């Protein structure tokens, strides 16, 4: 693999945003929701301490390499910050609130979806507005699932696991209802232009709240695959605690993935009005990401085949690392599949499939090397103080998403007793990656 001097900058938000949105505050708000999510995840992973991953993904591939690490003591300041960060998910809730912990929030959007005879009242508002954008909302659910699967025991240790599961279910309940038939998915509720005209509480809003869908004639492989990834990962979270719900999630995920793959197209093309807000620059990454989660959730070898020998070369962007974000899932997919190399059982995997898995793992490794400041391939996208800085658009999202992946990779190394990460002749350890992660959160 060539040395990568600089990760490709992310696709900047479309110019239309600037042209159309007069108010700078509103522009920021479009991307703020994800920012808070990412901060939360970073706090979470750091608060977990070095941790054995042996019992993680309890329902997923068994691991045969128990690691030497045990959870460290709870760091109170991180645990407190995590508890506060979790409130974000409560604050953003739409619908009829249950066990509401936020004194100033009430029921809202109870009739969302009623014009389509659907209950789309749940889910999360984006952040600074009252629109429910399905694409980033589903990505939020996928990452929350991943965090619970890897670090759920540590969340339980600081009494946050129930909260995390409830927050996840508030999103997945919405996603299930948004998928009323095999080739139909509602991807947005609310009219962002109308909504942004008025700064108001969701409890008091009176604008029309149209629901936009993708379907076989107007496809959205990106959004449908992201929702499939959210449902597949959440099906693992709920497998033991609510098997029926888990089954519903899994079957919906499989159906949506088939829809996403068969009717290919970008939702930004099918529903041009989403371009101004969460434009998706491609769907190949989401198809691979969804197939990876479906493989973990079902262990159906066809998903493995799909993401390795069938589509690895087509959508993998080998040799071209990118920043992990709500628009680009390549780096997340690479780390998720590297997990199999580090921890997974690979019985029954053909040599050709394994060769592609190695490609994902090498890409994950290359991404880690770009993050470590002392590596020959270190990215130059950082501030003088060392914070990863890629773009002014919600600047922290890139640093914190990369941090989440770095902590996972570090724990995969530690658990599987892999001592060394090689970066163009320089070597690093799992501790170096963890140290990098801490510098992104604490400084
Ligand atoms: C399919 O989706 C498009 C775009 O959202 C919409 O205009 C159209 O009415 C939908 N088709 C059906 C049959 O609902
Ligand atoms: C928006 O998404 C479309 C479809 O994926 C893509 O072709 C286009 O380049 C994107 N626009 C920007 C500005 O990224």
UniProtKB/TrEMBL annotation:
Record keywords, A-Z: Carbohydrate metabolism, Cellulose degradation, Glycosidase, Hydrolase, Membrane, Polysaccharide degradation, Transmembrane, Transmembrane helix
Glycoside hydrolase family domain ranges (all copies): 78-441
Catalytic activity, as annotated: Endohydrolysis of (1->4)-beta-D-glucosidic linkages in cellulose, lichenin and cereal beta-D-glucans
Record bears the keyword Transmembrane helix: yes
Transmembrane segments: 31-54
Gene Ontology biological-process annotations: cellulose catabolic process
GO MF terms held by the record: cellulase activity
InterPro entries: 6-hairpin_glycosidase_sf (IPR008928), 6hp_glycosidase-like_sf (IPR012341), Glyco_hydro_9 (IPR001701)
Top class in the EC scheme: hydrolase
Pfam families assigned to the protein according to its UniProt record, in alphabetical order: Glyco_hydro_9
Catalytic activity, EC: 3.2.1.4
Family per record: Belongs to the glycosyl hydrolase 9 (cellulase E) family.
Name the record gives this protein: cellulase
């Amino acid at each position: 693999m060539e040395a990568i001097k600089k990760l490709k900058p992310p696709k900047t938000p479309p110019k239309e945003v600037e042209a159309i949105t007069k108010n700078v505050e509103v522009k920021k708000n479009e991307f703020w929701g994800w920012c808070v999510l990412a901060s939360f995840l970073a706090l979470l992973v750091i608060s977990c301490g070095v941790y054995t991953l042996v019992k993680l993904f309890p329902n997923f591939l068994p691991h045969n390499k128990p690691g030497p690490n045990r959870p460290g003591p709870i760091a109170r300041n991180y645990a407190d910050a995590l508890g506060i960060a979790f409130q974000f998910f409560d604050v953003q809730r739409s619908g009829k609130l249950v066990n509401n912990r936020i004194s100033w929030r009430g029921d809202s959007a109870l009739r969302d979806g009623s014009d389509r005879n659907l209950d789309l009242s749940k889910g999360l508002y984006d952040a600074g507005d009252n629109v429910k954008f399905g694409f980033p909302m589903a990505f939020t659910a996928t990452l929350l699932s991943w965090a619970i699967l890897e670090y759920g025991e540590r969340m339980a240790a600081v009494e946050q696991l129930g909260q995390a599961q409830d927050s996840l279910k508030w999103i997945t309940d919405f996603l299930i209802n948004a998928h009323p038939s095999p080739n139909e998915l509602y991807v947005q509720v609310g009219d962002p232009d109308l909504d942004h005209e008025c700064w108001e509480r969701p409890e008091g809003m009176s604008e029309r709240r149209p629901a936009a869908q993708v379907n076989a004639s107007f496809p959205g492989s990106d959004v449908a695959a992201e929702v499939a990834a959210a449902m597949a990962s959440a099906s693992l979270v709920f497998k033991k605690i609510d098997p029926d719900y888990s089954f519903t999630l899994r079957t919906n995920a499989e159906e949506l993935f088939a829809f996403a793959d068969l009717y290919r197209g970008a939702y930004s093309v099918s529903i041009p009005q989403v371009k101004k807000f969460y434009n998706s620059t491609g769907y190949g990454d989401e198809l691979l990401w969804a197939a990876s989660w479906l493989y973990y959730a079902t262990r159906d070898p066809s998903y493995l085949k799909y993401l390795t020998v069938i589509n690895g070369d087509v959508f993998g962007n080998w040799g071209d690392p990118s920043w992990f974000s709500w628009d680009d899932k390549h780096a997340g997919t690479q780390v998720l599949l590297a997990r199999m190399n580090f921890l997974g059982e690979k019985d029954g995997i053909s040599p050709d499939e394994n060769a592609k898995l190695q490609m994902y793992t090498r890409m994950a490794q290359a991404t880690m090397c770009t993050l470590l400041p002392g590596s020959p391939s270190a990215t130059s996208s950082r501030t003088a103080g060392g914070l990863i800085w890629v773009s002014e658009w919600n600047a922290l999202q890139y640093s914190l998403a990369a941090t989440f992946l770095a902590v996972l990779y570090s724990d995969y190394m530690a658990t599987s007793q892999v001592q060394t990460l090689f970066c163009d002749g320089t070597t690093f350890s799992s501790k170096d990656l963890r140290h990098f992660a801490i510098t992104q959160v604490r400084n």
